[in-house]
Amino acid sequence: MNEIAVPPGKDGDTAGERIVRLSDGDIHVVESGPTSATTVVLIHGLAGSTASWEPIMFALKDFHVVRVDMLGHGESAKPADGYGIAEQGRRVGAVLDRLGVRRAIVVGHSTGGSVATALATQRRELITAIALIDTGPRISAFIGNTLAGRLLYVPVVGPLAWRLRSDSTIRAAARTAVTRDVRIPDQIIADVRGMTYRAFIATSDAARAFLAERPVPDRLTDLGLPVLVIFGAQDRRWQPSSAADYRVVPHARVEILDGVGHTPMLEEPEVTAALLRGFVAECPQ
Predict the structure, then answer these.
(1) What is the rounded CA–CA span in Å between residue 115 and residue 109?
(2) For the chain, what percentages of helix, strand and coil (3-state, to nearest 5) are there?
(3) What's the CATH number for 10-282?
(4) Is the pLDDT of residue 4 over 70?
C-alpha cells in the first residue's frame, strides 16, 4: 500500500486501501463507492479497525465511504504517543483533505464517536451531520471494566498480561461488547492482537479524559448539526439509559435497539445499516 490515489473506475467508483502519510503518524484508509456521491466517514471504536464496519458495508455501497484506522489501530502507525481524542480527530480531517473531500457525514462507534465529535468541532465547515453508535455521553455513564480489564491498568501486571494474552482471552473480553449470541469475527481478534499495550491504554485514557472534560451532548449542542444516535438497550459498556442524554441535543434522533449490546453493527447489522442509510439520505449535503 502507498499514498498514490486509487484510479476511479466506472462512473467514478473507487475501491482500495492506502496509507496516508501524516507528519504525526501514518494512517490506513479504505475507500469505496462513487466519489461523486455523498461521503460517509466511518470511525471505529477502541481496539477496532476498518474491518469493524464490514457487516453493514452492503447498505452503503451507493455512497462514497471512507473508513479510517485510528492511530494505534489496524494497519495505522502505533507510536508511543499522540492518542488524544482531539489529535485523532485532526488526523481524520487531514486524511479527508488529502482525499479531496470537502463535505462529509461522519459516523463513529463508541470511542470513535468521540473522535467524530472532535472532528466536527474542529472542522464545522467539513462535517454536515454526525451519527454516533453506542458512544458514552458522559464519564459517569461508564459501567466499568471486567476484572481482566482492570488488571490491564495495574503497573507491571498490566503490560505482562497484555504480552501473555491468548486468542481465547481476547475473544472472552470481546464478548462483553455484544449481548446476542453472535460469532466474534477472527479479524476483531487479530485487530486486538496487533495493538501495542501503549496504544490500547493511551486511547482508553484519552477517551475517558475527553468525556470528563465535557459531555458529548453538550459538544453536539454547540454544533447545530443533524445527529443520529443508535444505542443498544443491553449495552454492557455504557448505561443504556444514558442514551437519553442525547435527547437534549437539537436536531437529534435517538434510536434504541432492543436486545442489542454495545456493537449493533455486529449484532443487528440489517437494522443498523437501514438506520444509517436513511439518515445519510435525509441529511443536507
Answers:
(1) 9
(2) 45, 20, 35
(3) 3.40.50.1820
(4) no
All residues at 6 or more sequence positions from 183 whose CB lies less than 8 Å from its CB, including other chains: none
Instruction: Give yes or no for a contact between 135 and 113, defined as CB atoms under 8 angstroms apart.
Output: yes
pLDDT of 151: 72
**Residue showing cell 447489522:** 269
Please give the model's pTM, rounded to 2 decimal places.
0.94
User: Which one, of 101, 18, 97, lies nearest residue 64 by Cα?
Assistant: 101
pLDDT digits (tens, 9 = 90+) for 65-95: 999 999 999 999 999 999 999 999 999 999 9
Domain residue spans of the chain: 10-282
Looking at residue 158, its pLDDT comes to 87
- Between CA 91 and CA 28 the distance in angstroms is 11
pLDDT value, residue 150: 74
64-68 β-sheet, strand order:
16-22, 25-32, 64-68, 39-43, 104-109, 127-133, 227-232, 252-257
Distance CA 99, CA 246 (A): 31
Q: How do residues 202-227 score in pLDDT, each as one tens digit?
A: 999 999 999 999 999 999 999 999 99
Contact 90, 49 (CB under 8 A): no
Task: Quote the CA–CA distance of 30 and 146 in Å, as a whole number.
Answer: 32
